[in-house]
Amino acid sequence: MTGTVITGFGVLSAAAVGAGPLVAAVAPIGHGAAAAPPTTAVDWYAEPLPAPAAAVVEGLDFTALLGRKGTSTFDRATGLAVVACGQALSDSGLAVSDETRQRIGITLGTTLGSLRSTSDFSRETLVQDKPYLVNPMLFPNTVMNCAAGQAAIRFGLKGVNATVAGGALGFLGALRYSTNALRAGYADAVLTGSVEEYTPHSAWAAHHAPGAVPGVPTGEGAAVCVVERAEAARAAGRHVDAEVLAATAGFAAAADAWPDALAGCVRRALAAAGAAPAQVTLVVTADPAEITAVAAALDGSRCQTLAVREVFGECQAASGALQAATVLAVHRGDPARDGQLALVTGHTPDGAVGAALLRGWSR
Amino acid sequence: MHPVVVTGLGPVSSVGIGRPEFKQSLLAGRSGIGPIESFDTRGFPYVNGGEVTGFEPQALLERIEPAHWGRSALFAAAGARLAVRDGGLDLDRVDAGRAAAVIGTTSGESQVVERITAQLVAGGFPAADAALFGQAPAGRLAHAVSAELGLCGESMTLATACSASNYALGYAHDLIATGQADVALAGGADSVCRWAHAGFYRLGALTADACAPFDRDRSGILTGEGGAVLLLESAGHAAARGAHVYAELLGYGVNCDARHMVAPDAPTIAACMRMAHRHAGIKPDDVDYICAHGTGTPANDSVEATAVRDVFGAAPPPMSSIKSMLGHTMGAASGFGAIASALAIADGFLPPTINWRTADESLEGIDPVPNQARPAAVRVVQNNGFAFGGNNAIAILGAVT
Q1: Nearest CA in chain B to A51
Q2: Which residues of B carry out catalysis?
Q3: Parallel, antiparallel, or unpaired for β B34-35 and B48-49?
Q4: Contacts of B137 in chain A (CB under 8 A)
Q5: Which fold has domain B4-247?
Q6: Distance, CA of B175 to CA of B168 (rounded, Å)
Q7: What pLDDT was estimated at residue A210?
Q8: What are the φ and ψ backbone dihedral angles of A278, each rounded to 5 degrees?
Q9: Inter-chain contact A169–B139, Cβ cutoff 8 Å?
Q10: pLDDT confidence tier of residue B300, bands split at 50, 70 and 90
Q11: End-to-end CA gap in chain B
């Protein structure tokens, strides 16, 4: 048991922006309806794209959402993450004050930050008259902790600030990092999420990724959960969306043995929580291929399964947080599920695996 | 809680690959700086950096195929392999599921991203090599360590920029302390790249030839690279196999400036030091040596000295910067600092700040251990790490009692 709970979340995705809209968007899925990511023809990049349509967050205007101050250098990933952090704080009711800001942190998952920001900055060293004629204001955008650092500045959060580079496992790694920081006493609350932007760079990276499936649109998004110690949340009277019963991680002895390693993660999560496979009623995976591995760990017990890309498109590093947000949204809108368990799983092509076991509640 | 000890050191650096050579370089005050060879420096006003010129991954690695991994992942894996050998750890006798890899980085596979970018400039996206995209994810730094050593515990890459190794050491410490792991390979890796060289130059933070931290006339950093990995074990695991113990990893502090993306904040850094002391169970008076972040820019060294004097008073312990020898190895920097800290404790010396000529009156009270390594009884070291994004992380190492 991690002793931590989730007291609110924020989300930006093609399917919904904001916790409330996501609750509405996933309600039919919770009752068994098939999902399909809404797609848009992307016409705002000069570069060629691997597919004409993508599951993007439409009409994003960070200046309108966040104002001009401090936001002019934001890339899309940073903007998505900062907006999602703000939504999560509001949704939770967690107050940031001079008394609390030292003890509120941020952990975000990513693949490699903004590939577009980094590659464009590197490009300037090749195409400018002099190779050093880069824009120094954009230099921090090449560093993978840009989104977490900017979110800390935006909300004045001086607690532990971490970025986990884990691709599809970025969120689960971030959740483990955050729950450890809470347990070890480094923070009282940690905004925990992951983010992926849609750019030509990320679209081609998704296109070339091992296991990419033709016909699944590339997506983007961010989701952020407020994770805090259970007793602090309850003492403050904040609503508990979910208890984080366990979060486990591992690495397969060989890359193609990841299903066994993932099944092991799920078993360890259940054991840590003292839970039986039959208590799990919802499994949200990063990749549909994970469903078989998870089913093996659940001893064939029947439950609802969903691959997150069916809802949001292939969102790469954002997928983990969008999986968690889906679980939270399904539970928030359906009191009949109160107290039931849900699993979030992920893996990387190299054989890293992870799982989180949540107990969800309606609001 | 299980005490966490350092039992193996794996430096892959510009001043030596492997613990014996690295230690000799620290003692000798050897510089690893030279003309950059990994990219074409034509057109850059400054052309020096701290590259690992003799790095031959195939000579060090036993399991993973170098062609499938980027340079930073290979630094990490090679550092981990060296740490395991240095620690005399028989991996066949380790419970693989209880062995973790935690690696910090600033720019991950920066050279892979630069190769992708060069292809984009030359021929656009459709012409770019698909396989390179598969090598770019930064999570592969830790995965390379796990795959090289056959570790089946958690494999996590922490991308918290230039303090990332201390984040990794801290997280690995907690995995062992709480009984989730017996063994962890923790540290960091980064590679020299064009974009960082250009970015630091344009920030006015790059110097021409020699990095001179805490000198009155210090003028900036030199970009460096390498892999710095430490073998951590629970004290019980180390004792059961009769391992040599360099030091105990006592604890760490982490916080965030939340003020500016690149300019450090002295009060927050001082708070981070106090947090590290509290978690390590020590007092400022216990610290015998500070392995400084010490980048060598006028502003950063000044901020670091201000924070140190705030916490330690007017006469703080000696504080040197190994960046004077290595350059700024980014995500590996505090990993190299931790290796130097462990050696300082185990072998009784303070690494020097080389290139030091003139005292800076504004840094009064700071003893940078100028130019010559110094014999000293070292029981507790504070290893500083600060970063873009205001990501501060400080690790405390101590002699085993």
Answers
A1: B126
A2: 162, 293, 328
A3: antiparallel
A4: 111-112, 165, 167, 348
A5: Peroxisomal Thiolase; Chain A, domain 1 (3.40.47)
A6: 11
A7: 80
A8: -70, -15
A9: yes
A10: very high
A11: 17
Could you identify the residue written with the tokens 């312990």?
A: B317
Taking an 8 Å cut-off on Cβ atoms, the answer to whether B195 and A105 are in contact is: no
**In 3D, which of B146, B153, B165 has the Cα closest to residue B97?**
B153
What φ, ψ does residue A338 adopt, rounded to 5°? -50, 130
Please compute the mean of the pLDDT values over residues B66-73 and round it to a whole number.
98
For chain A, how long is the longest CA-to-CA vector? 65
pLDDT at A59 over 70: yes
Q: How many CA atoms lie within 13 A of B189 on its CB side?
A: 37
CB–CB of A75/A117 below 8 Å? yes
Cα end-to-end span (Å), chain A = 23
The 3-class SS string of B115-172 reads HHHHHHHHHCHHHCCHHHHHHCCCCHHHHHHHHHHCCCCCEEEECCHHHHHHHHHHHH
- Asked whether residue A29 carries a pLDDT value surpassing 70, the answer given is yes
CB pairs under 8 A between A and B: 258
**DSSP state string for B225-267:** -EEEEEEEEEHHHHHHTT----EEEEEEEEEE--S-SSS--HH
| Contact (CB<8Å) B199/A102 | no
As a dihedral over the C-alpha atoms of residue B12, residue B13, residue B17, residue B19, rounded to 10 degrees, the angle is -90
* Contact: B114, A150; criterion CB under 8 Å: no
pLDDT of A236 reads 94
Q: What is the CA radius of gyration of chain A?
A: 19
As a whole number, mean pLDDT of residues B296-324 equals 98
pLDDT interval class at A48 (50, 70, 90): very high
Non-local CB neighbours of A153 within 8 Å, separated by 6+ positions = A70, B258, B259, B260, B261, B390
Enter the CATH code of domain B251-398. 3.40.47.10
From CA B168, how far away is CA B249, in angstroms rounded?
A: 12
- Going by C-alpha positions, the residue among B264, B118, B265, B101 that lies closest to residue A348 is B101
Is the per-residue pLDDT at A300 higher than 90? Answer: no
Q: pLDDT band for position A1 (50/70/90)? A: low
Beta bridge partners of A243: A5, A359
- Tokens representing residue B291 in the block: 């392995």
* Consecutive H or E run containing A25: helix A19-30
Q: How far apart are CA A265 and CA A290, in angstroms?
A: 12
CA angle A359, B2, B6 (to 5 degrees): 120
How do residues B1-46 score in pLDDT, each as one tens digit? Answer: 999 999 999 999 999 999 999 999 999 999 999 999 999 999 999 9
Q: Is the ipTM of this complex over 0.90?
A: yes
Angle between helices B71-86 and B110-123 (to 10 degrees): 160
How many whole angstroms separate alpha carbon B390 and alpha carbon A188? 19
Residue ranges of domains in chain B = 4-247, 251-398
Domains B4-247 and B251-398 share a fold: yes
Are residues B332 and B12 in contact, defined by beta-carbon separation less than 8 angstroms?
no
Looking at residue B222, what DSSP letter applies?
-
Q: How far apart (Å, rounded) are the C-alpha atoms in residues A240 and A91?
A: 11
pTM greater than the 0.90 cutoff: yes
Question: What pLDDT sits at residue A79?
Answer: 98
Residues of A in contact with B194 (CB under 8 A): 122, 125-126, 131
Contacts of A217 (CB under 8 A, 6+ apart): A37, A39, A51, A53, A54, A55, A313, A314
Q: What is the mean pLDDT of residues A41-61?
A: 95
C-alpha Rg value of chain B to the nearest Å: 19
According to DSSP, the β-strands at B289-291 and B319-320 are: parallel
A8 pLDDT more than 70: yes
Under 8 Å between Cβ of B191 and B107:
yes
The model's confidence at residue B401, banded by pLDDT at 50, 70 and 90, is: confident
pLDDT number for residue B36: 98
